[in-house]
From TrEMBL:
This is Glutamine synthetase. Pfam families: Gln-synt_C, Gln-synt_N. It comes from Leptidea sinapis. Keywords: ATP-binding, Ligase, Nucleotide-binding. Belongs to the glutamine synthetase family. Coiled coil: none annotated.
Amino acid sequence: MQTMAEEAKGPIEHNPKILSGPVLANSPNAFLSKSVLTRYNDLPIPKDNILATYIWIDGTGEHVRCKDRTVNFVPKTPKDLPIWNFDGSSTGQADRKNADTYLIPQAIYKDPFRRGNHILVMCDTYTYKMQPTESNHRIKCQEAYDQCKDEEPWFGIEQEYILLDADLRPFGWPPGGCPPPQGPYYCGVGANKVFARDLVEAHYRCCLYAGIPISGTNAEAMPSQWEFQVGPSLGVNGGDDLWVARYILHRLAEEFGVIVSFDPKPVKDWNGSGAHMNFSTKTMRAENGIEEIERAIDKLSKAHMKHIKVYDPRGGKDNERRLTGLHETASINDFSAGVANRGCSIRIPRSVAFEKRGYFEDRRPASNCDPYAVINALIRTCILNE
């Protein structure tokens, strides 16, 4: 059993003792007094000054960047906001000799950190020639959605993640060892089973304040592993909502002195982390929609490896570690579907099978997937028949 930080140091031995409390002393942010900031947060600023945090996906396809600017009006739509630029050579998105890369605002959310009229702005990225960067999957997702708006595709995303301490060990795990085997941690309660609920609670409320349709959260199968659910979101909005929810989580974690990891398999021999995608169309949600669900699953079975290649940022390499056929996953090489079966590629919920309409869950996307790429693939395979 190895963590990312200790992979080269040999296995972590199983340690059955009760977990010790989390230690934040080795986090640089822990040395900063958060109370000092309150001396400045209430400083009055001109009423016509709105602080806008522009957020974008960098060249890795899985990490977000951000920077702030002041605008002198309250924007009603993303198009009201100015196009901006950044140094793409520092984010893996441009050459150093021609580094300017464009940010085009696409979605606006309320800022839960500054509050008031201040905003978070989800952007996509374009080269100096105004062509989409390699990590800009939003534009194809938007194009796909525009072709099937009448079907009203809904997406609900179950985002799993793990919290790490400053030494990149799972947060709250005993030094040099592992906690007792998984079992009591999923949806657990108690100081020896659950860590950092404060952060999770803050994230839940921040997302709701921002306008993100977060629909729930729970502790997961590994201690310090959590999940939140976003949706149902319509079409490309699902990607916007999840990316901004991820940004808020990272931003909150700074204040708590912990690190958020979306690595799909952070510790061997424990459950990995996914971003299960719940998907439905108007036809699937209608009476006897189970027939459309079954047709969609048949189409997915014929495009399995094409989907695997876009379900993590490294073309399936990350999912190779997670989709092993163990720990509530199907094998990456085999497509399967079943009712209430969490060992399948596609799960049909028991209630859907009973009511004969609803949605299905694609359990293959990795926790670090780009939701725009996943949504795009599902629309094109299941609705557009590409």
